[in-house]
Amino acid sequence: MNQNPEKHLILADPILGSFIKLNIMEPRKKSRRTHLESLVEVIVSQQLSVKAADTIYARFLALFPNKKFPKPEVILRTNDSKMRAAGLSYQKISYIKDVCSKVIAKEVRLNSLNRMTDEEVIAELVKIKGIGRWTAEMFLMFSLMRPDVFSNGDLGLRNAIIKLYKLKKPPTEKQLERITKKWSPHRTTASRYLWKSLNNTPNQ
Question: What average pLDDT does this structure show over 94-108?
Fold first, then answer.
């Protein structure tokens, strides 16, 4: 029986639940983006606020006809200086071009990701230059719509937990495990509310 995520979290955790009751969010909508586009967008968003990431990604799309996401071959042919002018660092440009190269060479199996477990998806994606566990976890949450993902390495989530649970210092891994375990199998929804508590909800 699939319980409503908010109902489960409210019953399982009174602290997070008290915030949820006052801040009910709309259900997530499935992304219409391709897996490649989602990966490029999440690379752009690395270490940036949501607003800054949105601005730079819009400038990136504006480099291409009709502001539509192009094929990987087109991205590879795009001059680095043009991408830099859109606000991308040379490092992120190299990451974006690496994922495009690996997709074309079929070194990364994006078409198979939907059939993989969460950990298998992470193992596949970290083959790409510049994609670590955090980036793969964001992809799991917002592109593959996996319901039970929590990113221990996300600074925003850690800060939200410090704030909501009135901790005097950053939580240890054991504390994180104890707090987040009760949210399963809806840790992705819990993460969205934690981000919302900081007014910094990632793109859905």
Answer: 95
Give, rounded to a whole angstrom, the gap between the first and last alpha carbons of the chain.
25
* Farthest CA pair distance, the chain: 53
* CA contacts within 13 A on the Cβ side of 60: 26
Distance of alpha carbon 106 from alpha carbon 135, whole angstroms: 20
Q: Which two tokens stand for residue 70?
A: 């192009």
Q: Which of 54, 118, 148, 154 is catalytic?
A: 154
Sign of CA dihedral 48, 98, 34, 131: negative
Q: How is residue 85 written in tokens?
A: 């002018």
pLDDT in tens, 38-70: 999 989 988 888 889 999 999 999 999 999 999
Q: Which amino acid makes up residue 47?
A: Q
54 is catalytic: no
Mean pLDDT of 171-179: 93
Structure token pair of residue 202: 């990632």
Contact yes or no for 131/92 (Cβ under 8 A): no
